Amino acid sequence: MVRWITPLLGTASASAIGDGDGDQYSIIDVRELVDRAGNDIPTLRRKINDGVNALQRGERVVVCCDHGISRSNSIAAGILSQAEHIPFDEAVQQVMIATGETEMRLDVVSAVRRALPLLNTTSMIAKEENWLLTGGSGFLGKIVAASAPADIEILHPSRQELDLLKGGVTLDLYTEANNVRRILHFASPRVGNTNAAMGEALVMLRTVLEVAGSRSIPVVVPSRWEVFAGYKGQTITATENTSPRPSGILGDTKFLLENLALAWAEESMASVTIFRSGLVFGQGGAPHFLRSFIARALTGAAITTHIYENGEPKLDLMAAEEWADALWSLLRSDKTGLFQGGGGELFGTRQIAEMVLRSSGQECIIDQLPVEGGVANVRLGYEKLEFATGWQPSDQTSQFLADFIDHACTNRVFT
Question: Which superfamily does 3-115 belong to?
Answer without folding.
Answer: Protein tyrosine phosphatase superfamily (3.90.190.10)
